[in-house]
Amino acid sequence: PGIVLVAINPYEQLPIYEQDVIYAYSGQNMGDMDPHIFAVAEEAYKQMARDEKNQSIIVSGESGAGKTVSAKYAMRFFATVGGSASETNIEAKVLASSPIMEAIGNAKTTRNDNSSRFGKYIQIGFDKRYHIIGANMRTYLLEKSRVVFQAEDERNYHIFYQLCASSSLPEFKDLGLSKCWHSPVRCW
């Protein structure tokens, strides 16, 4: 049994995630301030330091709910309170995805034009002073059925359309991409 926070993606930047808010939640006890992703991160950080045990934060929700953004805010909190934000820029390093990775794992859904179809498991390593010393992100592909079928008003993985559009380029000739035009899945 742990803490549950229900957050809603406002689809715009709000001033409730800035540096001064991180410092306001740092060192506070759960419940002393309004519910916030920083309160959850602070509780995990405190328990890690106090009990010297690994902690987990599970971020779950529907497509477009703001899971990736919430994970970024939690990492920003850890980097800031651990004194490593300026040294490592860990949030940017861990969550930076290459365009190829985005193309392979993202698709258009009815709720999000660039919905990540990857599940992400992020491990953040801390030293004895509780500064971030590294991170590892594992990904796994969700909804493999989207490869052969997509609901109305949705698109397949972006890579499918990019490959179809590139099929006539000379550097792609040897890949046999001309066959994708015969696919039962609509290209555009």
UniProtKB/TrEMBL annotation:
Q: Which family does it belong to?
A: Belongs to the TRAFAC class myosin-kinesin ATPase superfamily. Myosin family.
User: Domain Myosin motor spans what residues?
Assistant: 1-188
Q: What InterPro entries does its record include?
A: Kinesin_motor_dom_sf, Myosin_head_motor_dom-like, P-loop_NTPase
One Pfam family this sequence matches: Myosin_head
Ranked from the top, the taxonomy reads: Eukaryota, Metazoa, Chordata, Craniata, Vertebrata
**UniProt-listed Gene3D superfamilies:** Kinesin motor domain
Provide the protein name.
Answer: MYO5B protein
Q: Which GO terms describe its cellular component?
A: cytoplasm; membrane; myosin complex
One of the protein's GO biological processes: actin filament organization
Source organism (scientific name): Nicator chloris
Gene that produces this protein: Myo5b_2
What one GO molecular function would you report for this record? microfilament motor activity
Q: Which UniProt keywords apply?
A: Actin-binding, ATP-binding, Motor protein, Myosin, Nucleotide-binding
Name the positions where ATP binds: G61, E62, S63, G64, A65, G66, K67, T68
